[in-house]
């Protein structure tokens, strides 16, 4: 074997952190977001996220447009000038990490404080043929990043590892956080549904290993041919020869809308990982912590609707428990309106610690501002209803559009309601996400998601004077300056079919937003009661959307008229002082003893005590706006965080304490049920409801009735007492008889355990 020089080894689950950005390089505003490690993680509701499909933004390095080993047929360059034409959006266009670096000043000036990019790791890089009944075919590529091939190598179309690290460093140096897309649900298409489901791909690879079983990389962090076999990677799993059970192999979900179908069958024929397999869990956790070690600030998890919550909970916990503290996590739980999966959607963040892309907000906003199929009153009702339904409503990532839906500009070509929707997004509850090009009015040729994935470099001059750009700029600044927008509660002050006046309030801080969606009609708003002090309040947008100042007298906002398309934003931002601590947000909202937790708000500096219920936590560092603390050794379950300063005690914030590192037990039982009944499990640990049937875990899946099964997240190496119960649609409970059942969970943090098929007692 040849000796390799300058190699770095990935030590399984222990991966060295890359260099961090020192606090001395950050402005005061940027330093507010920095942790004790110097990183900018995590994303908070004070941020404005900008989503970039990496291949569709800017081509900053033409040398990687057709990487070595890649076919020229995958690149959209019919005139052979080496540049993507932006015409065939199924092919690569040339966007890369250098292109994002080149536009950092554009992003920063706009007020962007976090960037969400496509999955950075290697994807399938062969043609994807969709054969047509007419005899031809469409050729697709994996430009989007959702067809993983090797988690430990970069997508060469975007750059090498040193290029990724250059992007990270450039963003961080400018106070911009980095979120990566991450897919743990599937690889690429294992069979081709357009050719009789013939075998296609879906293969997963890994780098060469040394004699200790550790991955080997060169000094820049790229895989090397360590074993001198001519390859820098090795086949790990193949859905068409799945001897180790890495995939579910149950075929495409198709029209199966059962919970089992969503979680265990293929999404669009993409090879679905069996996350009940300990080897799969170990590999995915290693991959995610590898990218965390590269200094990212957050994960956007793909297809959380299709993921087992038991896996997702342990997966998120493994990432946050690795060196570097908790990150921001949000995922794509794709639902419609109305949707029978809504209850599962709204509770997913509470059950897993991974928040949602806010599809409820998206649907309501699309209908109210785009199609005009719902009233503004209905939109306001959605804000109130979801604020009540979501435990952490300001962490839900709101959006007008993204890569999976129609471009909002295609739906709404009129500037006035378009601007009104954008201004509302940036002032409403949640953490706003801007799809790349929204500020340049990018649209699409049709209503499909692929048509919306346009090549921005070909479509726009990156004009920093557009009205949409200025809206984002002004309201991003307001979101950072007035905690009412980031942390506040929502109240509707007035609504009608076309007008909405809403308030965001965090203690004495307030922001009031008045919106008229109609472009050509004016409406008069009657006098509104208010707690604002008497005085005149200027429009934060300075008339950009035809707004004006307003006056408060005797506890009322006087009657006013909203012109067509008018949006007025009025801010009251008093100094809350430093004596009284007030909590606005906490990241993460779930973890175990010894984990780091970040507490955001005001009045958090000086001598403070952080408690989880009545148990004090260790405070690592603090400032007036952030506390970094360690979760104390406290009983598992929901705990209330408070901050005490002198005799002043803050408001409470819910935090879910886990009993230990999580793994999975797949419980199975044979049980007959009456129509409307489902099987659940309840037991003596918090993860099983502590014998409280209202907190029982389920319902179980039953693809082969009367057998039922469910993967459940439990603490490792723990003996658990439990029983199965039946629940009907009215919540009536039937307990099984006999003694409590008992099982001991696996000792490994990534372990899984299948029970035998037990018989209902």
Automatic annotation (TrEMBL):
Residues 188-223, 735-761 are annotated as: Disordered. Transmembrane segments: none annotated. Belongs to the glycosyl hydrolase 13 family. It comes from the Bacteria. InterPro entries: A-amylase_C, Alpha_amylase, Carb-bd-like_fold, CBM20, GH, GH13_cat_dom, Glyco_hydro_b, Ig-like_fold. Keywords: Calcium, Glycosidase, Hydrolase, Metal-binding, Signal. Its EC number is 3.2.1.1. One of its GO terms (biological process) is carbohydrate metabolic process. One of its GO terms (molecular function) is metal ion binding. Residues 657-761 form the CBM20 domain. Residues 188-198 have a biased composition (Polar residues). Residues 1-33 form the signal peptide. This is A-amylase. Its cofactor is Ca(2+). The lineage of its organism: Bacteria, Pseudomonadati, Pseudomonadota, Gammaproteobacteria, Cellvibrionales. Residues 200-212 have a biased composition (Basic and acidic residues). It is an enzyme of class 3 (hydrolase). It comes from Microbulbifer thermotolerans.
């Amino acid at each position: 074997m040849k000796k390799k020089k300058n190699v770095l080894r990935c030590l399984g689950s222990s991966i060295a952190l890359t260099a961090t950005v020192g606090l001395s390089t950050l402005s005061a505003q940027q330093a507010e977001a920095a942790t004790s490690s110097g990183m900018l993680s995590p994303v908070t509701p004070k941020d404005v996220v900008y989503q970039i499909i990496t291949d569709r933004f800017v081509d900053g390095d033409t040398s990687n447009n057709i990487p070595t080993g890649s076919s020229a047929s995958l690149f959209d360059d019919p005139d052979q000038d080496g540049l993507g034409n932006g015409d065939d959006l199924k092919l690569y266009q040339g966007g890369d990490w250098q292109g994002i670096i080149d536009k950092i000043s554009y992003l920063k000036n706009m007020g962007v404080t976090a960037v969400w990019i496509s999955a950075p790791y290697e994807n399938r890089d062969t043609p994807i043929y969709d054969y047509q009944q007419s005899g031809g075919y469409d050729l697709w590529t994996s430009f989007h990043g959702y067809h993983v091939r090797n988690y430990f190598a970069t997508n060469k179309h975007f750059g090498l590892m040193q290029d990724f690290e250059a992007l990270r460093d450039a963003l961080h140096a400018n106070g911009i956080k980095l979120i990566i897309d991450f897919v743990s649900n599937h690889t690429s298409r294992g069979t081709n549904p357009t050719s009789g489901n013939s075998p296609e791909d879906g293969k997963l690879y890994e780098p060469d290993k040394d004699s200790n079983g550790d991955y080997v990389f060169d000094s820049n962090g790229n895989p090397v041919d360590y074993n001198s076999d001519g390859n820098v990677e090795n086949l790990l799993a193949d859905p068409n020869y799945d001897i180790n059970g890495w995939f579910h192999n149950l075929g495409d979900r198709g029209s199966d809308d059962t919970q089992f179908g969503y979680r265990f069958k293929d999404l669009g024929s993409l090879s679905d990982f069996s996350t009940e397999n300990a080897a799969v869990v170990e590999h995915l956790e290693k991959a995610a912590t590898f990218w965390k070690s590269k200094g990212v600030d957050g994960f956007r998890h793909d297809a959380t609707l299709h993921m087992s919550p038991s896996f997702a909970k342990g997966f998120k916990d493994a990432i946050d428990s690795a060196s570097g503290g908790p990150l921001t996590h949000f995922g794509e739980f794709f639902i419609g309106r109305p949707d029978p999966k809504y209850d599962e959607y709204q509770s997913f963040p509470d059950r897993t610690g991974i928040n949602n892309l806010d599809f409820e907000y998206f649907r309501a906003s699309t209908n109210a501002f785009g199609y005009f199929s719902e009233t503004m009153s209905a939109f306001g009702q959605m804000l109130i209803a979801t604020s009540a339904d979501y435990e952490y409503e300001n962490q839900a990532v709101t959006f007008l559009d993204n890569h999976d839906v129609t471009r909002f500009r295609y739906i709404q070509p009129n500037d006035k309601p378009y601007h009104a929707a954008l201004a509302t997004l940036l002032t409403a509850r949640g953490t706003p996400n801007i799809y790349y090009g929204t500020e340049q009015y990018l649209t699409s040729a049709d209503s499909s998601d692929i048509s919306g994935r346009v090549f921005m470099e070909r479509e726009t001059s990156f004009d920093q004077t557009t009205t949409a750009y200025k809206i984002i700029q002004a309201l991003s600044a307001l979101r950072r300056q007035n905690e009412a927008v980031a942390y506040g509660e929502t109240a509707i002050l007035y609504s009608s079919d076309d007008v909405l006046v809403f308030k965001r309030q965090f203690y004495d801080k307030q922001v009031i937003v008045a919106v008229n969606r109609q472009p050509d009609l004016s409406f008069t708003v009657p006098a509104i009661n208010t707690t604002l002090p008497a005085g005149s309040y200027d429009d934060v947008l300075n008339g950009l959307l035809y707004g004006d100042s307003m006056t408060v007298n005797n506890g009322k906002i006087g009657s006013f008229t909203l012109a067509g398309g008018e949006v007025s934003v009025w801010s009251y931002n008093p100094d809350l002082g430093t004596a009284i601590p007030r909590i606005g947000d906490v990241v993460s909202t779930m973890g175990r003893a010894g984990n780091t937790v970040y507490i955001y708000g005001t009045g958090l500096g000086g001598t403070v005590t952080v408690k989880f219920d009545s148990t004090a936590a260790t405070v690592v560092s603090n400032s007036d706006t952030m506390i970094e603390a360690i979760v104390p050794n406290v009983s598992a379950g929901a705990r209330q965080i408070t901050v005490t300063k002198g005799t002043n005690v803050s408001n409470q914030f819910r935090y879910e304490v886990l009993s230990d590192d999580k793994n999975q037990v797949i419980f199975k039982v044979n049980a007959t049920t009456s129509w409307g009944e489902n099987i659940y499990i309840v037991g003596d640990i918090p993860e099983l409801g502590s014998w409280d049937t209202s907190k029982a875990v389920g319902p179980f899946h039953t693809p082969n009735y009367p057998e039922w099964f469910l993967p459940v997240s439990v603490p490792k190496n723990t003996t658990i007492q439990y029983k199965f119960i039946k629940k009907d649609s009215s919540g009536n409970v039937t307990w099984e008889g006999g003694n409590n059942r008992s099982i001991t969970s696996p000792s490994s943090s990534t372990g899984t355990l299948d029970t035998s098929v037990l018989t209902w007692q």
